[in-house]
Write a structure and sequence with these properties.
YNCE-like_beta-prop; Cytochrome D; mainly beta; 335 residues; 4-stranded antiparallel sheet; signal; N2O_reductase_N; 2 helices; WD40/YVTN_repeat-like_dom_sf
C-alpha cells in the first residue's frame, strides 16, 4: 500500500507508524522503564531515541522493580498504593495488578523460588513463594525500624536487609523465617550487595560503604565514596562495581578485585538507581532534578533526559534478547 504525503509533511512510513497501536510500536523498541515516585506513574522511554512513549498511571508511589526469574514479567511495587503491578517487558502493557502490603524494595532469590519484599513504612519483611505465575505469602517478619534494601546469599538461604532506622543490617533466615543476626554498619544504610563472599552496604547518612563478613558478622573495613552513599551495581561483565552517592552527586567506580576506587564521575542531580544498555552505558535516575542521566563510562560524558518528579527505579530492556544486558535489573545477583 502507498501513502500520499500529507500537508504537514507526514510521509507514508511516518503515517503508518502513527497509526500503529502504542504497544505494537513499543514491542520493536528498546524500552526504558522509569519509576517516577513523585508523580505516581511509570514512564516508558525509547532507549534509542530517548523519546517518551507513554506513562502508566499507578495509585500512589512506585519505587522499585524487578524481573521475574524467566524475565517474562516486570514486577513494580507501588508502596503507597499497596499494590504490585505485573508488566510485559516487551511492550510495557499492564498484565495484572495485585494487592500487596507496602512493597518498597523487592527481589527474587537466586534460585527463583521466593520473592522477598521490604516494607519501609510498616517495618516488616514479607516472604512470598513463587511458582512462575503467582505469589503466595509464606511469612511476615518484624525485623526492625525501616527495612529498606535487600540482598541474598548465593544459596538463597539468607536475605540481608538494611534497617535505615537502626544503622544496621539484619540477616533473615528464609527457611526458618526468623532474624539470625544483626550488625551495625553506619547511619541510614540503604543499598546492599553480595560480592565475593562479602556484603557491601551503602551508608546513606554518611559517605562510605561498609564491607561486612557474613560469617563473622564483623565490619572489616569502610570505603569512602561520597556523602549519601546509596546504591551498588556491578557492570554486566562484572569488571566494575558502581556506587551512587546522592548528596555529593557522584558515581564511584570500584575495582571488584580489591574494592579500590578506579574513577569518580561527577553526576549532578542526586544519582540513585542504575541500569545498563547494550553499549555498556549507565542510565541513572537523578532523583533531585527529574532527569535520567546517560553516562558513557569510557569518556565520562553524560547526557540527560527529562522525566517525571523524583525518579527512582529504572530498567533498560533491549528489544533484541541477544543484546539484553538487564539481568541485574535493580538487584544484582550474588557471585
Amino acid at each position: 500500500m502507498r501513502f500520499k504525503s500529507l500537508a504537514g509533511g507526514l510521509t507514508g512510513l511516518a503515517l503508518l507508524s502513527a497509526l500503529l497501536p502504542q504497544a505494537a510500536r513499543a514491542s520493536s523498541a528498546d524500552l526504558v522503564f522509569v519509576l517516577n515516585s513523585g508523580e505516581a506513574n511509570i514512564q516508558l522511554l525509547d532507549g534509542r531515541s530517548h523519546e517518551e512513549i507513554r506513562r502508566i498511571p499507578v495509585l500512589r508511589e512506585v519505587h522499585h522493580l524487578t524481573l521475574t526469574p524467566d524475565r517474562s514479567q516486570i514486577l513494580v511495587g507501588d508502596s503507597g498504593g499497596n499494590e504490585m503491578l505485573f508488566l510485559d517487558p516487551a511492550t510495557g502493557a499492564v498484565l495484572r495488578r495485585e494487592r500487596i502490603s507496602n512493597p518498597y524494595h523487592l527481589a527474587f532469590t537466586p534460585d527463583g523460588k521466593r520473592l522477598v519484599v521490604t516494607s519501609l513504612r510498616r517495618d516488616q519483611v514479607d516472604i512470598y513463594g513463587w511458582d512462575g505465575q503467582a505469589l503466595s505469602l509464606q511469612g511476615r517478619l518484624r525485623v526492625g525500624d525501616m527495612p529498606s534494601h535487600l540482598a541474598y546469599s548465593p544459596d538463597s538461604r539468607f536475605a540481608y536487609v538494611t534497617l535505615q532506622g537502626e544503622r544496621s543490617i539484619a540477616a533473615v533466615d528464609l527457611d526458618r523465617r526468623e532474624v539470625a543476626w544483626t550488625q551495625e554498619v553506619g547511619r541510614d544504610p540503604a543499598g546492599i550487595h553480595w560480592h565475593d563472599g562479602k556484603l557491601l552496604v551503602g551508608a546513606m547518612g554518611q559517605d562510605f560503604i561498609s564491607v561486612v563478613d557474613p560469617g563473622t558478622h564483623a565490619v572489616e573495613r569502610r570505603i569512602t565514596v561520597g556523602r549519601g552513599a546509596h546504591q551498588i551495581f556491578p557492570s554486566p561483565d562484572n569488571s566494575v562495581i558502581y556506587v551512587t552517592s546522592r548528596v555529593d552527586s557522584r558515581i564511584t567506580a570500584l575495582d571488584p578485585k580489591d574494592l579500590s576506587v578506579k574513577r569518580v564521575y561527577e553526576t549532578p542531580g542526586g544519582p540513585d538507581d542504575i541500569t545498563f544498555d547494550p553499549q555498556g552505558r549507565l542510565w541513572a535516575t537523578l532523583r533531585w532534578v527529574a532527569k535520567v542521566g546517560i553516562l558513557d563510562p569510557a569518556t565520562g560524558e553524560m547526557q540527560t533526559v527529562r522525566v517525571g518528579r523524583s525518579p527512582h527505579g529504572i530498567l533498560y530492556r533491549a528489544a533484541d534478547p541477544a543484546l539484553a544486558q538487564d539481568a541485574r535489573a535493580t538487584l544484582p545477583q550474588p557471585r
